[in-house]
């Protein structure tokens, strides 16, 4: 019973985090479309000289694959949202498919970290929507790890270390540290 409740909690985290990420990505896309219509538009996400979406959205790093990154993020979050809903409502997701979801989630951790590095040190601004998207990505990763870690290895010693780390919250601390590194980078650059 406890395992089922824990799974529902993790899938609930995935669902809510994906919804937050999707909404943030969608709002960012609307801002990008507004910029395309009027290059001098006053965007709602231009909060100050640090949080300036115009500079972010006009940078080449915001369209790495030839289209706005927010479109890629919207696809990822909707893909993940569907998995979260499936699990949250009590259905089972095949282990291999869960690994596929986790692979994409880990990809977005790396992609997001690179993007924040570019935003902070090369573009010189932050996007408020990106912060919400990346928070969603980190929450999604923490939940996928907790759902999948028991199946990651057949090595009993390594599995015991995973069990210990999860029981102590070390996995959650790891995801928190990624967020803290980005926050520290931003503080050092913009303070």
Rg value: 18 Å
How many β-strands, per DSSP? 0
Q: In percent, how much strand structure appears in the residues?
A: under 5%
Give average pLDDT, whole number: 93
Q: Give the CATH topology.
A: de novo design (two linked rop proteins)
Describe the protein's architecture and organization.
The structure is a single chain. By secondary structure, the chain is mainly α. It has helices spanning 2-37, 53-58, 69-88, 95-123, 128-148, 156-168, 170-190. It has one domain (2-190): de novo design (two linked rop proteins) (Up-down Bundle), CATH 1.20.1440. Helix 1 (2-37) runs antiparallel to helix 3 (69-88), helix 1 (2-37) runs antiparallel to helix 5 and helix 5 (128-148) packs antiparallel against helix 7. The model has no long low-confidence stretch (mean pLDDT 93).
Précis, in short:
The protein has 191 residues and is mainly alpha-helical.
Please render the helix and strand layout as text.
Layout: H1 2-37, H2 53-58, H3 69-88, H4 95-123, H5 128-148, H6 156-168, H7 170-190
Helix pairs in contact: 1-3, 1-5, 3-4, 4-5, 4-7, 5-7
């Amino acid at each position: 019973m406890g395992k089922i409740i824990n799974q529902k909690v993790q899938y609930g985290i995935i669902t809510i985090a994906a919804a937050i990420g999707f909404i943030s990505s969608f709002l960012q896309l609307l801002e990008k479309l507004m910029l395309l219509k009027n290059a001098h538009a006053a965007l709602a996400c231009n909060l100050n000289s640090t949080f300036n979406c115009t500079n972010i959205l006009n940078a080449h790093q915001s369209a790495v694959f030839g289209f706005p990154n927010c479109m890629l993020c919207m696809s990822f979050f909707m893909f993940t949202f569907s998995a979260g809903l499936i699990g949250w409502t009590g259905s089972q997701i095949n282990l291999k498919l869960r690994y596929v979801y986790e692979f994409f989630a880990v990809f977005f951790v790396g992609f997001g970290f690179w993007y924040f590095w570019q935003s902070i040190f090369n573009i010189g601004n932050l996007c408020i929507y990106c912060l919400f998207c990346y928070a969603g990505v980190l929450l999604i990763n923490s939940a996928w790890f907790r759902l999948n870690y028991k199946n990651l290895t057949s090595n009993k010693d390594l599995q015991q270390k995973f069990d210990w780390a999860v029981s102590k919250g070390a996995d959650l601390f790891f995801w928190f540290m990624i967020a803290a590194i980005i926050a520290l980078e931003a503080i050092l650059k913009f303070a």
